[in-house]
Amino acid sequence: MNIDSTTPKPSLSISLVPVLALVGLLVLNVRMFDSADNQVPLAIATAVAAAIATWVLKLPWEELEKAMFRSIGQAMQAIVILAIVGMLIGAWIKAGVVPALIVWGLDLISPGVFLLTACLVCCVVSLASGSSWTTAGTVGVALMGVGTTMGISPGMVAGAIVSGSYFGDKMSPLSDTTNLAPAMAGSNLMEHVRHMVWTTTPALLLALGAYAVLGLDAHEQGADSLARVEGVVATLREGFVLSPWLLLPPALVLLLVVLKKPAIPALFAGTFAAVAIGLFLQPRGADGLLGDVQGYFGVLWSGYERAFGAGEGAQAVESLISGKGGMKAMMATIAIVFCSLSFGGVMERSGMLGAIAGAILSLVRGTGSLVAATVATCFGTNVLTSDQYMAIVVPGRMFRPAFLKARLHPKNLSRCLEDSGTVTSALVPWNTCGVQMATVLGVATTAYAPWAILNWACPLVSIAYGFTGVSMAKISDEEARRREAEG
Q1: Around 100, how many Cα atoms within 13 Å sit in the side-chain half-sphere?
Q2: What confidence score (pLDDT) does residue 458 get?
Q3: How far is CA 425 from CA 31, 36, 69, 236, 279, in A?
Q4: For residue 187, which of 212, 225, 410, 453 is within the disulfide window of CB 3.0 to 4.6 Å?
């Protein structure tokens, strides 16, 4: 926690003040002001936490400032990815990639199995890429267009996409969280992945079963909207040249991530491949090639804007793709990342986060309560710090000795960290992951959260295993002492 021995340890009551301030400000902002922009409440809560740290705990402001900058610095890669994903979405729409995927999806996927299919597609892509953000920002965007055109609830569609996207995020050896969790718990990567099968499999089967049942109602809605679907397809075919060449940008991104290339170059490659194909494939504008290049420059910054006419199909297309993408659209998201990570940095450096988590640890009385406390702490850290990585690192540090004391194998802890810290991050509206999913999919976090079934089923299954003892691997006293000595 980086708490100096001379720093006064905050009490639980003092530590809860910034949390209560944040909750109160968020409620005020949403209920009274009818706003979904949570940057200001987070900034004010950060100021409250900093005031307590400096005036009550006597921490120098310079240390808090360093903690905030360090917290933000750890997320710089995610911030850069956010900006590039905005560019990618804008380029993919203008070049015709997203319109083509929507049209082909409408031709191939039946409304009755759409939710099930969407989840499975995202499972495969996220498992291959190891990234929920890449999955949602690429195939997820196209699937949103297909599902909403079929008349299926946007919240349901986004929930299925988020469930599938986080399946790979927690199971793929390519995922950063899948590597981080065992490192914090003291297990190794492959035993961690194998152990997660116990909790992830029933959670995924529950999600797929629910989407299959929900799809029956969605099929009835989709049948009623047949005319609307036909109008959307006709409008997109008229507005864009659709060609198999448009599959190259998503195929290139997928290939690069499968080859374990870094996410940022892979997303850049997918963006500029779409620009090149779009310049070659789509009809030339009145200003010629230079004008088209200028158009792409504009789209990469401000997103895709276009009027398609007055018909019902044209209006539906405008709602699907016009005003979407662009680096500019990500600026509000980046601002909330800065504010949320600043809050998390102050809470961790001051020891207030540790005091809250320590109070939870004091309630532990057995294996079941230890697992439940770990899951609750991971979720609480996601809420308080708005950062998925801190929700793995902080509880991992805190509960590692407790798991060894209970003679539980470290892979039990690493599984708990992923079953809660990784997947619940997308359920918190002001968490960087929740903000990212809501931004790229165009659906509020609170709207898709009930339908992101895998994300809330995983922690429940994990807790159930803790109380029943199912798959809770044990270690000997000798091994526990050896691991304690290793730290």
Answers
A1: 22
A2: 96
A3: 23, 18, 21, 35, 38
A4: 410
pTM: 0.70
For 365, residues 6+ apart whose C-beta sits below 8 A from its C-beta are none
d(CA 143, CA 156): 12
Candidates 160, 200, 20; CA nearest to 452 is 160
Question: Cα(438)–Cα(429) distance, rounded to whole angstroms?
Answer: 8
Residues 6+ apart with CB under 8 A from 198: 415, 465, 470, 471
CA distance 485 to 487: 5
Domain segments of the chain: what residues? 12-76+331-486, 80-329
Task: Using DSSP, state whether 349 is helix, strand or coil.
Answer: helix
- What stretches in the chain show pLDDT beneath 70? 1-7, 30-31, 34, 36, 74-75, 78, 106, 128-130, 173-174, 176, 218-229, 257, 312, 320, 486-487
Residue 31, amino acid = R
Give the tokens for residue 318: 């405008």
What does the buried/exposed string (b/e) look like for 171-205 if buried means 16 or more CB atoms within 10 Å of the residue's CB?
bbebbbbbebbbebbbbeeebbbebbebbbebbbe
Computed on alpha carbons and rounded to an integer, the radius of gyration of the chain in Å comes to 23
388: helix, strand or coil: coil
Count of CB atoms situated within 10 Å of the CB of 305: 16
- Element spanning 150, H or E: none
Cβ neighbours, 10 Å, residue 369: 16
Of 377, 413, 471, whose CA–CA distance to 185 is shortest?
Answer: 413
d(CA 47, CA 91): 39
Q: Position of tokens 């944040």?
A: 22
State residue 6's pLDDT score: 56
- pLDDT score at 218: 63
Tokens 């997918």 -> residue: 270
* Distance, CA of 12 to CA of 354 (rounded, Å): 9
Q: Which pLDDT belongs to residue 223?
A: 46
Per residue in 49-98, pLDDT (tens digit) is: 999 999 999 999 999 999 898 878 866 776 787 788 889 888 988 999 88
How many C-beta neighbours within 10 Å does residue 148 have?
22
Distance in angstroms (rounded) separating the CA atoms of residues 161 and 128 = 15
Question: What pLDDT does 267 receive?
Answer: 84
Residue with tokens 């959260």: 449
What percent of the chain shows pLDDT beyond 90? 35
Question: How far is Cα of residue 437 from the mean position of the Cα atoms in its chain?
Answer: 5
pLDDT at 225: 54
CA distance 452 to 470: 25
Whole-Å CA distances, 414 to 171, 210, 230, 237, 378? 12, 27, 48, 49, 12
